[in-house]
Amino acid sequence: MAENSRQPVLRLDSICKSFGGVVTAKDVSFSVYPGEIKGLIGPNGAGKTTMMNMISGIYTADSGEIFFEGKNITKTPDYARARMGIGRTFQTPRFLQRSSIRDNLLIGADLGNRIGFLQGFLGKSSTNFQSELDEMMEILHFRFDWDDDINSLPFGQRKLLEIVRSLLSHPKVILVDEPAAGLNNKEIEYLMEILRMAAKKRNVGVLLIEHSMDMIMDICESIVVLCFGVPIAQGTPAEIATNPAVIEAYLGREDDD
Amino acid sequence: MKNTKKTCLKGILLLLGTIAFYFVVRRVCTSLYTMMVVNIALIYTLIAYSVSVMLGMGGELSFAGITFMGGGAFLVANLTTSRLGLQLPPIAAFLLTIPFFAIIGFVVGLILLRLKSTFFTFSTIALVQMSYTIYNNYKPLFGGPDGIAGIPTTTLFGLKMMDYYDWFPWLLGFAVLIGLFINRIRTTPMGRSLASCRDNETAARVLGVNVYMTKVLAFTIAAVLSAMAGGLYALQTKFVSADMFTYASSTKYIIMAMIGGVQSTIGAFIGALIVQVLPQLLKSFEGYLQLFWGVSIVLLMVFMPEGIAGIFRATVRRMKNKKKKTAVEGGVPDGGK
Amino acid sequence: MVNGVAMGMVYALLGMGLILLVRAVGILNFAQGDLMMFGAYIAACLLLDVKLPLWLMLPVAALWFAVIGIIFMFTIYWPLRKATYSQATIIATMGASIALQELAKLIWGSQPRTLQALIQTADGKSAVLRLGATTLQWQYLIIIAVGGLIIFLITQLFEKLYAGKMMQAACQDSYAANLLGVPSVLTICATYIIVMCVCGTCGFLVAPVFMVRSTLGTLQLRAFAGVVIGGFGSIKGAVIGCLLVGVIESFSTMAFSGYKDVTVFLLLIVFLIFRPNGLFKAKIGDKA
């Protein structure tokens, strides 16, 4: 695949960040291409979620730059980045507890259809909402009552639903943080299907943090490995699997006898 | 489609309810005084709406309603009594409150909403204190402690509002109309964005909601509503003075909204009526009334923080769940744990 | 000027109670001033109605304060500690504020009562100290002295002694505190008692100046301002903020008379905008 001829949808350039004395990112640079599923892995505390927070705009990097579709977004506020097309899910799904499932998802659609407050008030609404939703529900194999409380759904479904909400906002790149945690095997299957659908059918770039190596190896086309904020390897799954630095980071060095 | 049918039904119910309300109240209010009480309740409803928007939808406790109510009242008073060398017909003065306080509310909101929630609340309290002092002291504009009297009678569509009875249907209609407006916000992107600011700010941000500006917008709407209420108050009672706009009064409106249910528009309406009318009904207990008030607020917060509307909704939900349990099919997802 | 410091001391006592409740219990108490008002009434009642001598009245009043503190905790705080609606507690304290005012009116009548100053001249007026050209009321000096002492003691308790740290732990994570053997209910109870005693003493001190009446509680608004200016982080900050408010208020009374409120609150708003964390930053940060 001639990826070099395409422009990356997301590009990080020498991102550095530390909290107090703790370095969470040091010279991190990588790119995500449209339709690519890229894994971001590393042992716990490696700074992966921090990285995502910086891309979303929740944190600001100490130095370095972030580019979205070629535009420098390093100084853009978080909501503006979301409106440009950076989607995000969280390790613990963040939903509005006091709203129905429908309303929770509609927020995603509001963003996707770029409906302003005034227009929304006057009655313009997202036309594709139902059909897009149905399509994704097909993949995820579950149905529910729209007016139910979000809390009535089990954890796994809420995690999947967060991805749905994000996809309803028509992002160009989506940052997915440990989506498989707490899901059973069936749900993980559906998860991978929906991510693949987003990447291949909608050309969304996916940056995926995951601890489940099976899933990473299965679904990712390229992987970045972080260890204590430092990128120690980048490449295809095959390359990463045999990279000594990566093995050492995860398993520790073998004793020299 | 099912949705439009439901909406039509709700609309008809609302219309019937309003008309019924009108006739019941007309029968019950045999004296001018009782009519005034209801009228004022309707005016207060607007402020309760503003609390509903700011606190219920936006999650921010703001005491600023009273400042803007005073502002609206004094603006109308000044413009209709040629104090400033200008004399406008009452309705024009009233309508002027809308753009005037939209701007002021917006600017104040921009300043105050830079603060986090508790600090924001404090700043609104500070605002109320300041505005009271200014209203009470600056004679040229606000008449000092004596206030401004002599506001002329309003003429609406050629009808003269001679007494409270004349005002009643218009106030009722206005309250209902504004209520519909507020309720509409709830089901639109703005309402959802506000809800996200209230419930989960991080989620709001990553979903493209400009939390700051959304709250400022809510504040502006709340300011305009309060100003309109003030303007109507001035027109109706034909007298305005700073005593009406103290910090102590501001708590009243918040309680109105909470009794009815801060999340519900009709709750604000009910709450305003209760707070305004109940003291009249319990006149014989006058000495104990305020005590009862204070205690009931505490009890309310403990047992019914969602107010009357909340109880209503919870009951509906329970009935719905019971129906679901008895049905055989019911949203059983595959692969669910 | 002394007036300003004295009033500042009053605000500081109130403000200290506020901060204690915020940090050790986690709620913003809108009834703080009214607790003080109630304390003033109790002191007045014991002195004037029951005619207790001063030395006896103090411990008896303290006992009453403790009782009220406990009642207050169980009515306002206890049922609401698991409330889903964060504003509910604040509004509940607003309700308590109204209830307290009315209760005072019912028990003791709505006429304001006069309480004599602690140090009086022969004809019963509040004694004054003459220092050169200035005349200072002794009562103000007493307020400053006693207030300062109380603040010092409380600060020692909470920031230095183990007991204080226990109380803070109980608030911040009651589950963990319980596991570590800190009985959270007791510590919270203790906090309420202490706060109420401080409020009550404050009321007693301030009564000769303002008269004992049910609206005494409005002083709390300035205490709020002081606490915010000083920052929610520490008792020290709240105290300094409140003293500042007191001094500024007295200066603006001289300069602007009617508009003194405007000055104080404008200052508050300006502060909030430019220094939202107050003069002293809070030690507790939030995990993003």
How much helix is in the residues of chain C? over 70%
Q: Give the oligomeric state.
A: heterotrimer
What is the CATH class name of the domain at 3-97 and 171-251 in chain A? Answer: Alpha Beta
Q: Describe the sheet with the most strands of chain A.
A: 6 strands, mixed
Q: Output the strand order for the largest sheet of chain A.
A: 6-7-8-3-9-10
Number of helices of chain A: 10
Largest interface between protein chains, with number of residues from each side:
B-C, 43 and 43 residues
Number of domains of chain C: 1
SSE sequence of chain A, one letter per element? EEEHEEHEHHHHEHEHEEHH
Low-confidence stretches of chain A: none
Question: Terminal Cα separation of chain C, in Å?
Answer: 44 Å
Q: Helix- and strand-based class of chain A?
A: alpha/beta
Could you say what the CATH topology of the domain at 3-97 and 171-251 in chain A is called?
Answer: Rossmann fold
Question: How many helices of chain C?
Answer: 11
- Beta-strand content of chain A: 15-25%
C-alpha geometry of chain C: globular
**Helical proportion of chain A, percent range:** 25-40%
Strand content of chain C: under 5%
Strand order of the largest sheet of chain C: 1-2
In short:
The complex is a heterotrimer of chains A (257), B (337) and C (288). Chain B is mainly alpha-helical and 337 residues long. Chain B has helices at residues 2-28, 32-57, 65-80, 90-112, 117-137, 139-142, 164-186, 189-199, 201-206, 211-237, 247-260, 265-281, 286-303, 307-326; strands at residues 148-149, 155-156, 159-160, 239-240.
Would you spell out the secondary-structure blueprint of this structure?
The complex is a heterotrimer of chains A (257), B (337) and C (288).
Chain A: E1 10-19, E2 22-32, E3 37-41, H1 48-56, E4 63-68, E5 71-72, H2 78-84, E6 86-88, H3 101-112, H4 117-122, H5 129-140, H6 155-168, E7 173-177, H7 185-202, E8 205-209, H8 213-219, E9 222-227, E10 230-235, H9 237-241, H10 244-251
Parallel strand pairs in A: 3-8, 3-9, 6-7, 7-8
Antiparallel strand pairs in A: 1-2, 1-4, 4-5, 9-10
Helix pairs in contact in A: 3-6
Chain B: H1 2-28, H2 32-57, H3 65-80, H4 90-112, H5 117-137, H6 139-142, E1 148-149, E2 155-156, E3 159-160, H7 164-186, H8 189-199, H9 201-206, H10 211-237, E4 239-240, H11 247-260, H12 265-281, H13 286-303, H14 307-326
Chain C: H1 2-25, H2 32-49, H3 54-77, H4 86-108, E1 128-131, E2 134-137, H5 138-160, H6 162-172, H7 174-179, H8 184-210, H9 220-230, H10 235-256, H11 260-274
Antiparallel strand pairs in C: 1-2
